[in-house]
Amino acid sequence: MKTTPFWWEEAEPQHGERSFDKTTCTALIIGSGYTGLSAAITLAEAGLTEVVVVDAMRIGEGASSRNGGMIGNSAKFTLAQASKRYGEKRASEIMDDYGSSMSFMIQRAATLSDPIDLNLSGAVVAAYTRKDLTKLREMRGRLASENQKNMDILEQDKVHSVLKTDIYRGAMVIHGQGTIHPGKYVQALARRAVDLGVRIFTGWRFLGARQDGQGHVARLQNVENRDSIEIHTDRILLGVNGYAGPETPWLRKRSIPVQSYMIATEEMPFDLLERLIPQNRAVFDTKRVLYYFRRSPDGKRILFGGRARFRTSTAEQGAEGLRGFMEHTFPETRGVALSHAWLGNVSFALDFCTHGGRMSDGIYYVSCCNGNGISGQTYLGHRIAEHMLGRPNTDRGIIGSRFPRLYFYNGKPWFLPIIGTGYRLLDKAARWLD
Ligand SMILES: Cc1cc2nc3c(=O)[nH]c(=O)nc-3n(C[C@H](O)[C@H](O)[C@H](O)COP(=O)(O)OP(=O)(O)OC[C@H]3O[C@@H](n4cnc5c(N)ncnc54)[C@H](O)[C@@H]3O)c2cc1C
């Protein structure tokens, strides 16, 4: 079993330029995942020259080439909950941002020259309890009638039409959502950015910046030989998500990094998998500690993911828990060998909302995908870029929303094992009471 992402078989992250020959640029973007690359594309498309992306690892080597490739656009809270937190106007703008992300991502994908294995056969939200099914039904009922048409509620006896398992109490099918190959997608974004004149440097770590008139002087360090350089720039964007280090303390106090694990099976008979997960839809369940799964783009493997562990662990350790749940979900997969097991970091905010904006030192950021960011971070990369360009009415919704900080926390989430255990107990209790 390999401990690298299955996606890297076809799209292993590549280095960008290694030797740094620039001392000035108009925009310096830290992070070459969906956020950073999407922002770079929007800036370059707007005609900004000298846009530079820097990553400490290879291009897209963070979560963007490690995820499940399941694309959707749902917020982890309702409009009513958001209104209490942010006020009605901001809340409705935030919901608009979530609602716009998927269609924006599809538009952006259409501008890419490389294939990304886009499959829009739909997503299945599998209800773990009857109460969860009721909540899904209520959520659908609150939507405008044209949006309700995109969703079907399935009672327990109909679940087999979309998922061959007996463990769920019902499901909601969301049409128009689906899957991509996440590694190919991040590579295609990088190619588009480079075609537009963006320079991508890898193996360089951002160490911090000082203000310099209207702009900044950023310090970068070569990861291998530790040489440091300075670069003058008009704007800086941090798109570091779950990989925020001590050099970005303001973000570290507000974002909680969480490891997420995935496994891929060896190839299995296509017909068997077509029976288990027909049409290769994306599936995720309604548990607090959720599991999500799909088939590989060729339909011959199951890819299974979730937050299998809450202590810092290895990919192999995470794989044990995931395999157990996969076999519980689909007894037909018992004994199937795993070809890959891997992990990556996502980041969560205290209010489960993604945030973006500008810090007091003038540096822009987008952070906290809350576990779900293929379309969201693509869209917010674009939205923050529009804000960086000074376009009107861009300081709304997620951009400029209040980003709550955690007290007694410096970036090391010591409390995660306690919260994880609590969530698991609540999931078990909910099922027991069901
Ligand atoms: C296992 C897993 C499964 C997931 N499944 C899904 C899914 O099915 N659907 C979905 O929508 N989302 C999913 N996600 C979440 C999704 O992958 C992320 O939301 C998204 O990739 C975040 O993109 P990003 O550009 O913000 O961050 P990343 O892709 O994580 O990029 C951040 C980059 O910043 C760089 N960096 C950090 N600090 C510095 C520094 N100081 N200097 C230089 N570079 C720095 C890192 O090297 C990294 O490359 C999953 C994530 C994981 C880990």
- Write the CATH homologous superfamily: FAD/NAD(P)-binding domain
In the CATH scheme, the class would be: Alpha Beta
CATH fold field value = FAD/NAD(P)-binding domain
Low-confidence stretches: none
How many distinct beta strands?
A: 18
H-E string: HEHEEHHEHHEEEHEEEEHEHEEEHEEEHH
Output the number of helix runs. 12
Structural class estimated from helices and strands: alpha/beta
Present as ligands are: flavin-adenine dinucleotide
Shape field: globular
Our measurement of the CA-to-CA distance between the termini, rounded to an integer number of angstroms, reads: 37 Å
The CATH level-2 architecture is identified as: 3-Layer(bba) Sandwich
Strand content: 15-25%
Average pLDDT metric: 94
InterPro entries: FAD-dep_OxRdtase, FAD/NAD-bd_sf
Keywords: Oxidoreductase
Pfam families: DAO
Protein name: FAD-binding oxidoreductase
Describe this structure in words.
The strands form 3 sheets. Strands 1, 2, 8, 9, 10, 11, 17 and 18 form an 8-stranded mixed beta sheet that branches. 31% of the residues lie in helices and 24% in strands. The chain starts with 7 loop residues before the first helix and ends with a helix. It has a single domain, classed as 3-Layer(bba) Sandwich (FAD/NAD(P)-binding domain), CATH 3.50.50.60. The protein has 12 helices and 18 strands. By secondary structure, it is α/β, with parallel strands linked by helices. Flavin-adenine dinucleotide binds at residues 30-36, 54-57, 61-64, 66-71, 205-206, 239-243, 245, 247, 260, 262, 292, 305, 344-346, 369, 371-374, 377.
